[in-house]
Amino acid sequence: MNAALQGQGIAVRFGATEVLHDVSVALPRGRWTSIVGPNGAGKSTLLKALAGLLPHAGSVQLLGRPLADWPARERARQLAWLGQNEHGADDLTAYDVAMLGRLPHQPWLSPPGADDHAAVERALRATQAWDWRARPLGQLSGGERQRVLLARALAVQAEVLLMDEPLANLDPPHQVDWLLLVRELVKNGKTVVSVLHELSLALQADELVVMAAGRVVHHGACGEAATHRALERVFDGRIHIQQVAGQWLSLPKL
Amino acid sequence: MNAMAAYHRKALLLGLALLLASAALLLLGASVGSTGFESVLRMGQDAMAWQIVSEIRLPRTVGAWLAGALLGLAGAVAQGLFRNPLADPYLLGSASGATLGVATAMALFGVSPLATHWLVRIGFTGAAFVGAVVAVLLTLLLAKGVQHTLRLLLAGVIVGVVLGAFSSLTLLLNPDILQAMQSFMLGSTAFVGWSAAGVMAAALALCLLAGWLLSPVLDGLALGEATATSLGLRLPQMRAALIAVLALATGTAVAQTGLIAFVGLAAPHLVRSVVKTTHGRLILLSSLLGAVLLTAADLLARWLVAPQELPVGVLTAVLGGSYLLWLMHRATAHEGGGR
Amino acid sequence: MKRLWFCLLLTLWLPAQALQITDERGVQVRLAAPPQRIVSLLPSLTETVCALDACHRLVGVDRYSNHPAQVRTLPQVGGGLDPNIEAIVALKPDLVLMSMSSRAAERLEALGLKVAALDTKTHADVRRVLEKVGTLLGVNDAQRVWRTIDAGVSAAAQSLSAKARNTRVYFEVSRGPYAAGETSFIGETLTRLGVKNVVPASLGPFPKLNPEYVVRANPDVIMIGNRSMQAMVPYPGWQSIKAVREQRICVFPNDDAETIVRPGPRMAEAARLMARCLEEKTGEKPR
Asked: Does B174 touch chain A (CB under 8 A)?
């Protein structure tokens, strides 16, 4: 199996509480995987551990190599991260924020080159943020901010893109834009892993990792019945996965 | 891209304006003092007037400029490092450490021959610098490293309070140094000669270079620690380096001119109110603005009640504080009418 | 018979009137009998009591009172501004002498103690306080003590040669520089000695000067009353001052500095110290 990102025996503790219990997961290359589960299942923690941003027991491999063996900048060029509730940077313009995504590519302290500008432009256009690229982040609405932060992650042009709740504050048209963007990336061979709590959008992915209480309960294709049943189980049977107009949707069970 | 060019131009204009202001203030500084203009006019003929201008006024003015630059730089670094717009250079306890160093030095001087011998060699400036650095080291020790911002802040507050208590105790037991300590705690450029200015210039050059080299870290940190790490920045080492820059800049400024409030806090805010830019330029502009602010305050301190002098720290608080108040007022007015 | 009554009344009235003063707060302090247990919370008041030969009546002093030597063995009850109320009350004093700037006066009076708040800031104050304390202590000697002190100052002034008397002096109290102006206690002593103070009365008693001012004033002798290392770490640009060039700087060691700076009955000794140094520094030939 061609796994872009693989974790074995990952365990994370916060103080006395164990948040992830011995999780092993292999995220396939060139596909879009969504991690779903109820609140507190450990989805964000798993994503952070896979990105190497949390101390954890167990091992992680990126593109076949152990994560610890990657030099920091090389790893940053291959693995991009978009976190949840990123704050700060209110005084930087949208353009400058997106340009920060090019840091792993720029030689230290050299001014941005032509390919950096091109990458930033492409990223900002892809998230429809190009028109107000000179506005400081502090003056943007929640949705606009999120799109700029998304552009920052896209500008890295990494092989693997990890996104934690990337649709926060985005309205439906922009959620659809994001969906199309991810499909485009996957078509070009990139690997996308997202933590989403909007189940209907998560079900648009290629594969689903279902988590509950710090463990992976199921990992399978989004179209499979087994995946749907696992999903319904972790949500205590309060939802029902149904196909509507060719797409799988999560409907509340009333 | 042209939209960004406007920002770059603005930053450049601000830099030029500040340089011009610096030159003007430097000239004024040579003319302000207990005797006023006449010293400059009589410079050619009167040896004493020449001496007053060249050996007292010029180094003081240059010293004020350099100290302000160091504080402005330290403020920009502190605010970027702690991602907190209320951060100032004295965050990690350096102010209390310097005060304790000077108080101890003054209390021990003349009491024991060994202490006196050492104190004459390092002087009060040395004592203040050592105190500031020791305080920062204590903070790092208490916070067990540089990784946790909140722990660092808390440790800084604790160290500041505890060392401040020790200073107060020293002052209580030696009331005859109270007045001299006051002069230190409220700030003054009266003790800055050419050698002191040289020390500050060297520190400024070093800190500007280091700050500029490390500015991408500050930019990355603006997006949060997780994102900064994901962008390939080696946070622990770079943070340690930034704290070293902070300690050096603050320690040097405090050692030579005493505790001057508000310059480190206000300078980065004032720069950001004019132009939004990344940290590479922010550090430089903040440094320049801090220099201009402190030089202007020092001029006023020497001029308002000549031949007496006001403590320059009082004036920086009034100047910097009023401008910040006006900014806040303007911001809330905009917000009310804006979105 | 009437005469007897009158004398009796007189004997009753006189002592009552004799042990009463108005202290600096404007409060009438009245004592029935001369106090035998006195607590002093200000070094100059301690010295005043001892100058009136009532040192043996002191039972407690503040931590800064160190003269004469015998008061150092007395229990210390805190500082002037932060006295230890409990300790004072435990000593059961008949009278507590303190500075006006202390807020403890009300507290102590509320606890039933007699408090007199007195301050000495000028030469005239020293005389007045001597008399007031003398009255309170039931000692009639105050006038004589004052005359001795005054004579001591005059003697010091007369001991100066004409050369020493024509000098212009700069007295630095603290690093800053904080100078002693003409209206300060030290300034008054300098005036009595006949020398000229470079800091005029218009600047107040203890102005914080611009160091330039001293360069321009170019004093003949510099006196340093603190331990602020000024002699070894001069202000920038002061090498041109005559006093610095010719090394005419009076650096008083700690004990002497204390004597000079403290406004109290030792002002004669202070004057002598200053006069001696002046004579020394103006007698030498420039290098």
From this structure: no
